[in-house]
Specification:
2 copies of one chain form a homodimer. With about 140 residues, chain A is α+β, with helices and mostly antiparallel strands. The N terminus and C terminus of chain A are likely disordered. Chains A and B meet through strand 2, strand 3, helix 1, strand 5 and strand 6 of A and strand 2, strand 3, helix 1, strand 5 and strand 6 of B. Strand 5 of chain A pairs antiparallel with strand 3 of chain B.
Chain lengths: ~140, ~140
């Protein structure tokens, strides 16, 4: 069935595995709202770990509230949760967090330049909720 | 570093975790070649399990060799492997397999219609290499 724009399997009984599935090209372009219900950004792309096939990060274009134009920020995928009523993602990320976040990668001409390991750790540490555990 | 169009982390030492990462919007539109080196399709989108964030399936537009126009088929993600030399994906899937594959979902107007659990099992069984284990 199609539920608020997202494809989900129907759970016909309790023993079956429930498999909500989303399409990559449907996530791209979806709005991101903050806890106050204000639209703060748009999902640009998903970053997927090749070996495991897991979505690790998501690029979000934040803009409008920073006062300094539009900014692309790379945030951990689990910082976003889908809100059926909004048909968008919701996040606890604040304006301050976005403003101070380390840039993850940049462009060299048309080529993306990926950060080194040190910067990736910096990003993980920055977005970590619980300093004791992994993201 | 950027390696054949894909972003990878540099492995600076043996103890560090290696993290090759791909971007969703870079996978979409990438060519798929068969074992004979013939281009048989193009990746349309990734299908991601919401809870785990894992890419489970990929929609591929196959065309040109079926003699019956272009066909969208949903195949398990692990049926595709990235070939650096080709800068594309390679698959062991054959023309016969594509021709006989069960359609995964269809369109009802602009809305995608997701299959029920029975059809999803049918698809998993169809693409299974080893009948004893999961895909």
């Amino acid at each position: 069935m199609l539920e608020n724009g997202f494809l989900v399997w129907e759970a016909s009984n309790n023993t079956a595995t429930f498999h909500p599935v989303i399409e990559s090209d449907r996530v791209e372009g979806t709005a991101v709202f903050n806890q106050q219900g204000r639209r703060i950004g748009t999902i640009k792309r998903l970053l997927i770990e090749k070996v495991s096939g897991k979505v690790l990060y998501v690029d979000v274009t934040f803009g409008g509230f920073l006062g300094i134009g539009v900014h692309l920020r790379t945030v951990p995928w689990d910082k976003l949760s889908y809100d059926k009523a909004l048909e968008s993602y919701r996040t606890e990320i604040t304006e301050e967090q976005v403003r101070d976040a380390p840039a993850f990668y940049g462009y060299d001409g048309d080529d993306l330049v990926w950060p080194d390991r040190k910067r990736e750790k910096e990003l993980r540490d920055y977005w970590r909720d619980d300093p004791r555990g992994p993201i």
